[in-house]
Amino acid sequence: MAELQARWGPSYRLLVTFAAMIGTIATILSATIVNVALPQVMGAFGIGQDHAQLISTAFLAAVTATMLLNGWLVDSFGCRLTYAVAIAMFVLGSVVSGSAPNEGVLIVGRVMQGAAAGMVQPLGMQIIFQVFPAERRGSAMGLYAVGVVLAPALGPTLGGVIVDGFGWRAMFFMGVPFALFGLLLGLVFLPGPTPGAGPRRRFDGPGFALLVTALLALLTGLASGQREGWGSNRVMLELGIAGAAAIGFVLWELRTDAPMLNPRLFAVRGFACSAAVGLVYGAALFGSTYLVPLFVQTIQGYTATRAGLLLMPAGLAMVLVFPIAGRLADRLPPYAPIGVGLLLFGSSMLLMTGVGTDTPFWTFALWILVGRIGFGLAMPSMNAGALRALPQRWVGQGSGAVNFARQFGGALGVNLLSISLERQTQYYAQALTATQDGGPATRELLRQVELLLAQDGVAEVTRGAAAQDYLAQMLLSQASMLAFRDTFLLIAIACLLALLPVVVMRRRSAG
């Protein structure tokens, strides 16, 4: 680092930050860009929501697992090599995803992208803390955070334009040029391993293996439950393996002298409360970002571009809110911004329970905007509150753990909300179908549809079946809309329940 600073002079700080930022933006962009393409991917591969949601959750789960590896990788191999390998893996994952012949290969590609993103994301913060003096770190972090937040905010919009213009496969290649440019900058400006740093820190192999097993078995079991039945032997086995691996992970991390994730952190009440809120926020944010584009494309008939534009005002608002929220985090106790943020996000989801086929674009965009402002207010205080509660020797591990909680919440939230959506759709479809008992209203509707088909020149022999099919599609669309409303309500309830840890934080602060 000292040699690079001497070679490039005062401008080195900005150059190395820009290098890390480009790679981070390229990898984060792929987290949300895929959501607007899910209907097209489902149509291309002939899959349902139970498979499609794995395209999102596979990425988030991989980020969750590899994020905890970052500290060991940087200590062992240096920033430059860690960054280069991660970017190379991301590019390879993008190529695999974009050329995937089936959903299985696509999910493998998404895992590779997510694993790379998990390794790259913490690097930027580490670089800033190394090259900037303490009095300038806040400004540098603010600049870096704007780029990090702007990427997922613009992801759905850019993805929508690409999907409509070039097809869904082209979307996975969008981040490749930025990633390669970031790789070039990283090889030039990022520091290598520190000479004479001593022996390499031992890798927590058993802990990592248990964590990956728990995540993989849990997400697979949840996805299998909808297809195989929740009481099936396969699902019980997968969920059992997930539970056993999770327990084994905690026990191992308690006894090893070099834990990836120290469970003792969660014995600190203030940290545990912040991590619990982070878990809910991750589920709410990533879950709603998954659901909204799916709703407007499958129920309201939006194009992918229009679905992406719906999320853009909220994303831009977050960019403006973050610097303000950072200052509030320095001046207010953490529970205040976190509580207000949860109320705003919950209110946003509550408003969305009234969504329908005729909800105007800007009304929907405003509802989403309210929730994202809430998230922007809460996030800096959530991170700061978590780390302030810890002894100084645990701050480094605490930073990784609170990010782990948020990412894990995102993976779990998308999966559980997708399951809820599918189950509620089936429930309402059966209930609505039962109301069509051949009464006067149903017969009149079918007659009117047959008359319209006759005007279009449809043969008489097929009109009856076509009218019945139209009725079935109409009932399914109505059932899906009601199911989306229920799922948005679940997110609102989760935000309300997350106020309980906030109350504990307030009492602890008052005490």
From TrEMBL:
It is found in: Cell membrane. It comes from the Bacteria. It holds the Pfam family MFS_1. It is a multi-pass membrane protein. InterPro entries: EmrB-like (IPR004638), MFS (IPR011701), MFS_dom (IPR020846), MFS_trans_sf (IPR036259), Sugar_transporter_CS (IPR005829). Its main location: membrane. The keyword Protein biosynthesis does not apply. Residues 16-510 form the Major facilitator superfamily (MFS) profile domain. Belongs to the major facilitator superfamily. EmrB family. This is DHA2 family efflux MFS transporter permease subunit. It comes from Neoroseomonas terrae.
